[in-house]
Amino acid sequence: MRFELISINGKVLETEDFISAMIPTHDGQIMVLPNHEPILSAILPGILTISYGRKHIYTPNYVIGWGVVHVSDDICRIIADIVHNEDSLTDEEYIIAQKKEAEDLKNAFVLEGKSVDDPHKLIQLEYELLRYSAMHQLMKNKEATHPV
């Protein structure tokens, strides 16, 4: 079975040796294996774990944003607006993301001293919090498996 991970910047990963994928969706985590029943589902920001390979099994993790997963007879394709590989996510990016999250939270409900009830702003904040939470979890996992 073929697997493709695509971001707005193009293909991030493509392999013919797909084994499995753990995907964050609105209804919870789903595990996709070869010969999975066809699905089309929205994905949430979170951690995507993929396994692929023949002689050596690779299991990279990615922080992903909003997107869709499409599974058919011969392909599992994930399209997400943001994709960060665990190896490419640096401590500096993580620190910047933490600072932005704190600033977003500070400004989320108050604007010029008045309460903000804009649902679009709250949805955007939820998206950012899910993404930052996934980045945080991925960095914790990275530190646990690759101590300094």
The CATH H-level superfamily of the largest domain is F0F1 ATP synthase delta/epsilon subunit, N-terminal
Q: Write down the overall geometry.
A: globular
Segments where pLDDT lies below 50 for 5+ residues?
A: none
Order of helices and strands: EEEEEEEEEEHEEH
The CATH architecture of the largest domain can be given as Sandwich
User: What class do helices, strands and sheet pairing give?
Assistant: alpha+beta
Determine the number of helices (DSSP H or I, runs of at least 4 residues).
2
Report the helical percentage: 25-40%
Query: Largest sheet, described in full?
Result: 5 strands, mixed
- Proportion of residues in extended strands: 35-45%
Q: Taking all residues together, what is the mean pLDDT?
A: 82
Give the strand line-up of the largest sheet. Answer: 2-1-9-8-5
And the CATH topology of the largest domain?
ATP Synthase, domain 1
**How large is the radius of gyration?**
17 Å
Terminal Cα span: 37 Å
Q: How many individual β-strands?
A: 12
- CATH classification class of the largest domain: Mainly Beta
Count of the separate structural domains: 2
In short:
It is built from two helices and twelve strands, in the order ββββββββββαββα. It has 148 residues and is α+β, with helices and mostly antiparallel strands.
Structure write-up:
This protein is an alpha+beta fold and 148 residues long. It folds into two domains: 2-84, F0F1 ATP synthase delta/epsilon subunit, N-terminal (ATP Synthase, domain 1, Sandwich), CATH 2.60.15; 88-145, no CATH class. It has two helices and twelve strands, in the order ββββββββββαββα. The protein has helices at residues 91-108, 119-145, and strands at residues 2-7, 10-15, 18-25, 28-32, 39-43, 46-52, 61-64, 67-71, 75-80, 83-85, 110-111, 114-115. Strands 2-1-9-8-5 form a five-stranded mixed sheet, with no helix packed on it. The mean pLDDT is 82.
